[in-house]
């Protein structure tokens, strides 16, 4: 009797498992509901370069999946940019192109690429520029493109010092005075080279020297787009004296698309975002002051 009962229980378990598998097999598979395209380098697309696009699919059960190799890629104008079956876009002519991806009747929103070329590159600091031996200076540069747009190229450009024994410069534009003398600093990107900045490196004086620079602002509230704020720079010397160097300092903004700063320390809001403002004088750079730019109320 116990053996028959056990066999019945086993049979019942097998039936339940079979039903569960059948129900699972009949459950509808999640359907693709949308496709989103992402680019490797959003923004400016330099003529003659390529960048990889990726496609992510969102499904009816809210799951996501990389479908880059499964979608059909399309360029709206192959004379401007071509796109491979794997999503590699290559810029072949100046202009604007839209790239889309489709799969199972679902189309992505178009990703627009303005294909441009660099017109010129400008080093933001003034030439000639003075630097003391063992002092450091972060240089910045701005690339202007054929469509009039601009982009900070400080981190993407190739920096060069014509006399590295006088001043060395890193791949991100940070220069260090090595010995007294003159050198030319240039930066290049996509075959375009900036005008040379003449850097004069001198031996520090034996008298009091500047030990630090303090930057302050007239108002600590957020900066509205189109409005200005006055920044001031005060130098502290090794003998304890202080001096207002606002007009003598070299001012810099970490993101000129957000905020720009004049030679006299006036900061103007350009677009919403954050930028760091610094002042440089006599081989010393101040600590950065962060500025938040907001849209008009």
Report what the structure shows.
It is a single chain. The chain is mainly β and 297 residues long. The chain has 3 domains: 32-116, Immunoglobulin-like (Sandwich); 118-204, Immunoglobulin-like (Sandwich); 208-297, Immunoglobulin-like. It has 1 helix and 31 strands. Strands 1, 3, 4, 6 and 7 form a 5-stranded antiparallel beta sheet that branches. Strand 6 (81-83) and strand 7 (88-91) form a beta hairpin.
List the SSEs and their pairings.
Blueprint: H1 2-26, E1 32-39, E2 45-46, E3 50-59, E4 64-66, E5 72-75, E6 81-83, E7 88-91, E8 95-103, E9 106-107, E10 111-116, E11 118-123, E12 129-132, E13 136-138, E14 141-145, E15 150-152, E16 158-161, E17 167-169, E18 174-177, E19 181-189, E20 192-193, E21 197-202, E22 210-217, E23 223-224, E24 228-237, E25 242-244, E26 250-253, E27 259-261, E28 266-269, E29 273-281, E30 284-285, E31 289-294
Give a concise summary:
8% of the residues lie in helices and 51% in strands. The chain contains one helix and 31 strands. The protein has one helix spanning 2-26, and strands spanning 32-39, 45-46, 50-59, 64-66, 72-75, 81-83, 88-91, 95-103, 106-107, 111-116, 118-123, 129-132, 136-138, 141-145, 150-152, 158-161, 167-169, 174-177, 181-189, 192-193, 197-202, 210-217, 223-224, 228-237, 242-244, 250-253, 259-261, 266-269, 273-281, 284-285, 289-294.
């Amino acid at each position: 009797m116990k053996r028959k009962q056990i066999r019945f229980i086993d049979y019942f378990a097998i039936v339940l498992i079979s039903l569960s598998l059948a129900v699972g097999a009949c459950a509808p598979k999640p359907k693709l509901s949308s496709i989103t395209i992402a680019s490797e380098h959003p923004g400016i697309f330099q003529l003659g370069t390529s960048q990889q696009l990726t496609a992510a699919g969102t499904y009816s059960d809210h799951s996501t999946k990389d479908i880059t190799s499964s979608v059909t890629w399309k360029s709206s104008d192959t004379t401007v940019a071509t796109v491979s079956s794997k999503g590699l876009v290559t810029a072949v002519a100046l202009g604007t192109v839209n790239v889309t991806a489709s799969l199972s009747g679902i189309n992505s929103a178009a990703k627009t690429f303005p294909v441009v070329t660099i017109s010129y590159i400008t080093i933001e600091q003034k030439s000639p520029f003075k630097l003391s031996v063992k002092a450091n200076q972060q240089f910045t540069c701005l690339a202007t493109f054929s469509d009039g747009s601009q982009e900070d190229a400080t981190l993407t450009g190739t920096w060069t010092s014509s006399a590295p024994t006088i001043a060395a410069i890193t791949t991100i534009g940070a220069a260090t005075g090595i010995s007294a003398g003159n050198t030319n600093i240039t930066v290049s990107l996509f075959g375009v080279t900036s005008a040379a900045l003449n850097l004069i490196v001198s031996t520090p004086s034996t008298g009091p020297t500047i030990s630090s620079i303090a930057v302050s602002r007239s108002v600590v509230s957020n900066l509205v787009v189109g409005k200005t704020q006055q920044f001031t720079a005060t130098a502290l010397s090794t003998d304890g004296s202080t001096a207002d160097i606002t007009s003598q300092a070299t001012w810099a903004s970490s993101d000129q698309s957000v905020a720009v700063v004049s030679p006299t320390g006036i900061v103007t809001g350009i677009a919403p975002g954050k930028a760091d403002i610094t002042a440089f004088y006599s081989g010393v750079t101040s600590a950065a002051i962060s500025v938040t730019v907001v849209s008009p109320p």
